[in-house]
Give the backbone structure.
Amino acid sequence: MLAMILKRLLVAIPSLIGVVIITFLLTRALPGDPAAYFAGPAATQEAIAQVRAKLGLDQPLPTQFMRYAADLARGDLGTSLTTGQPVATEIRNRLPASAELTLLGLIISVLIAVPLGILAATRPGSLVDHACRVLTTAGVSLPVFFTGLILVYVFYYLLGFAPAPLGRLDVFFSAPEAITGFYLLDSLIARDLETFRAALAQLLLPALTLAIFSLAPIARMTRASMLAVLASDFVRTARANGLTPFTVVVTYAFRNAMLPVVTTLGMVFSFLLGANVLVEKVFAWPGIGSYAVEALIASDFAPVQGFVLTMAALYVALNLVIDILYGLIDPRVRIEA
Amino acid sequence: MKRRDFLKSMTAVAAGSALPAAPAVFSPARAQSRQETLLIVSESGPNNIDIHGVGTNVPGYEVSWNCYDRLISHGMKTVGGVPYYDRDKFKMELADDMSVGDMSATFKLKKKATFQDGTPVTAKDVKWSLDRAVTVGGFPTFQMKAGSLEKPEQFVVVDDNTVRVDFLRKDRLTIPDLAVIVPAIYNSGLVKKNATEKDPWGMEYTKQNTAGSGAYRVVKWTAGTEVVMERNDNWIGGPLPKIKRVIWRMVPSAGNRRALLERGDADISYELPNKDFVELKDAGKLNITSVPFSNGCQYLGMNVTKPPFDNIKVRQAVAYAIPYQKIVDAVLFGLGKPLYGATSEPPLAWPVAHKFTTDIAKARALMAEAGHPEGFDTTLSFDLGFATVNEPLCVLVQESLAQIGIKCTINKIPGATWRTELNKKTLPLYTNVFSGWLDYPEYFFFWCYHGANSIFNTMSYQSKEMDAFIDGARAAAASGDTATYDKDVKGFLDTAFTDIPRIPLFQPYSNVAMQKNVSGYQYWFHRRLDYRSMVKA
């Protein structure tokens, strides 16, 4: 298995190099001029030229690329102009924020969507099935910023249950010592229950927003895959042998229906991680999506390049994990590199 | 790992996370610190906390203003019930005494002044800091130049406690320019210690750290998320501020900033859409202050080098076809000062109202005289970064110009590319805002109308008479010749309103919303907050 993982990682290297080159060229093709942007509103042409020289943007493209590649080899992703911080540090700080939010959102989503999908599949055409259809359609057709704002309006503004949408922690709490970067885990490790509660309270609404959005693909995929499995011979045999409906559905049918669900989960996770910009904006969440978008708006090259590269690396890792999971769920699946 | 074990452990994980989530519990222990803390929410935060930095953004100015001292600052007057900086009244900050001679000004430093690390503030620090401002290039050097502060030789250490600033030429703006944000005084010893050969002015260090003698210092800064500042209890620049701690959080969604204010969680916010400010004002739960921008206005600019806007009749026709009042009512919700329809001679100030009104018949007649009775096609460009005002404004202008046959295609330009596009000076018709830190009419006109063609003369306007009036006013201001000054200011105002290369639309308001228990807001030329005067009851 180790050899297989190594082989897979080696195969990923050319695609990562491709990503590096393409993002470099794409960012340079953006219409904005970072020198003019950062020289400020009061800049003269000379001031802009000075800024451009300071940023090394007056060099020809190949020189710029060689410099970028050399920095990259040393693990230096460059410095963001909009935030003034090294990109690597920023990504290290922001990725856990996004990952924690996305994971929690996904867990909530799975907890609702999978049972719902199974129920809908066992009773097609019933009330549960229709409810499932309505819920998933509504969830996927409401834009996330809208769901987010509605949740903030109801639970924070009107009812006052939720804390202020001010990011990962209330202003008067200090962050737990960073070990994993996940506030929930870090505060538990530090045995600081008060911070844990505060962090969880901040997380609930944005996680719920993401969950509502990602219900649809998971529930629909569970339902479809369960329907196919439930109609197969071995389920009929199990039923004929007098096994309880629970054993038939959960132990036999669901386990066999899990493969496509896991694939969907992987896709939904990687999609959400990069695409939850709007949720991050609504909840002032210091995540990686809003970081990349802000950088893009300001034609700030380094963070955009760093973001795309990180996401590409994450996709490679995620696909690997999913493939390993396949093997564990269904021993018949053998991974070919 | 076996498949069966794996599935079992999956179930266990799922069961564990299914436990009901504990409700949010608010800790009363933290209420105490809430009383002494000012919580600010705004859309964006600093990218550099040193105003001398490369590309420091406007939120960065706010940190610099509160964490550094200058030799001098401004006193206050009252405009519309709000404390408003007085451009003519100077107050001592780090200096104890200022004596202005014919060709130099001498500053004596406050004896007890120390930097935040305890080292005393000396004349050497002052010279080093001013040298830095005129040397590092970019915006700080440009701003110093606006007051004829250009060379390090101008700053002379007389003794440990005394600095002299020599004038290059007589310029009324030299002293005011020493009271803007840029000439901040840095702890030269501390910064030099952190400087490198490649970075002799220690810009990398001050980008992340405050090294001043100011009333606050940055204790924590997470870019894009928050800035935490604490009071410097040894500050001698003025009375000790009441606010001990300032937490400034970035909340990108305007709707949430409003919700935070209304729920009482945030103390103060600005950068809200005008509509929200009007509604908050009407609701009466918060204190809202709206004061006009000093030395600024939003305008409609026309490229005078190319047809059709090289024709003065066309420009006048456009000026008669702008729905001025509608813009103030429907776009600004009343939070703007109209700048049209003057019936008497304009006062000698800036911005002032011009004589044009919305008169479609007159506009049509002018179009016919100009040889465009059928009208023409053009594009109307605006900066998407300020879309809440610009977009409805451009739609109204488009609608109105259609009545005189000018068919505009609206061209939305993203914030990042706006400046690049504007600097090319090829946009035929566009709207923009300009506001200068130094509130003098001749300053505004020099940048925006003079034939020297600075980047703010976005219309590429050239006029010999105009240049003569502007140069005359600048010289007269420096020598104190009031009669010539008044004549020349009237001259350039009249020329600007006859030739009308840019049409002033309105003077925007600077809007701030705060809780009822927060007071002490002051309007400054830079339009950012000054925490030093704020009080939380």
Notes: Chain A has two domains: 34-76, 87-298. Residues 87-298 of chain A form a domain with the MetI-like fold fold (CATH 1.10.3720.10). Chain A has a mean pLDDT of 84. Residues 193-230 of chain A form the longest helix (38 residues).
